[in-house]
Predict the structure.
Amino acid sequence: MDAEAYRGYCLENVAAAYDVVLITGTEPTWERRFLTDWEVADPTDQAALSTAGRALAARHQLAGVVTWTEWYLIPVARLARQLGLPADPPEVMRACRNKATSRTLFARHGVPSAASMTTRSLLEAALAAETIGYPVVLKPASRAASIGVIRADRAEELPAAWEFAAAGASQDTKSPQVLVEEYLDGPEVSVECVTHRGTTSVVAVTRKTVSPPPFFEEMAHSVDAADPLLTTVAPAATAAIKALGITDGVSHVEMRLVDDRPRLIEVNGRIAGDMIGHLVRLATGIDLPRAAADIACGRTPDLTPTQHQAAAIRLLYPDTSGVLADLRLDETGEEPWLERVRFQRRPGDEVLLPQDGGDMFTARLGFLITTAPTGDLAQARAQAIQRRLAVSVAPLT
């Protein structure tokens, strides 16, 4: 995934207010213009991360530590504890990362969620599916970005679904379980929240478009400052954050509306991916990366809206797997509402859809972002631009 394309705005926004020192797995390139200093270390290696953190602390007076990467949440929480910096404890981040733990806490605190059972074999999955009732969703317990998430509508589909989910789960050696869950039939949304000293503010709701079954790839998002769903989803999002023990930070709360009532999918203890944080700023003026940095440094974030419009993103995928032959945007006019177009693949690249052994990272071609007075118009504008894309894919040899 192109880190500059999807997370560059986070680093830029934070660097506008703070001197930033970075721990990164590779020597920084595009990041350098935003940095005061850095250390190269694998953030998933706790010992290496701690050594790098202590090295930076010896050279600078650190005020806080923050990450917007799912895989780093627990190591960074441990680092904050080691350095004596403000942060939710590692146990809270572990509860966010492990979906089975989250489900248990949701049930304990009365947060509407989905029936869920943890399995380690196809036989256990079959028993769980019969108990819960088809259709069911299979997913790794501790992955992200829809990796390994698939729906099975009947028993005949379960073996292939299990193999797909187990392959995703196997990438996490610490928690390789597969969850079998009740399928929540309804539109999917996410709720972007900021929690400071135990009080949660719901900043925005993101409406999502997902791929057809059996996969759950996210295809588009839109944020409308005036979305009437805000009052519907806010109580459930706030309750889920409280159930997990989050007291400080930015959260991305995913849910589905079943019979117009919110049912929790998961809580991510970080800024949302897919440029959603940027959509929030375009729509409301609220800067989520800056809020995350402020909270990490023990400061009260400014959540005052300064915009009142909408923004949408279309995530671009090919229709089939193969070798990308052509990718371009036909000539457009001077549309001021076309905020950006970004391609992350080039002709000659191999692109694999999930059904062909790939995932959203290997298949995605890029994205485009539009703005408008309303969410519906922002989405319509994005679709109009997408129709101007020229994409051709040659079959795999």
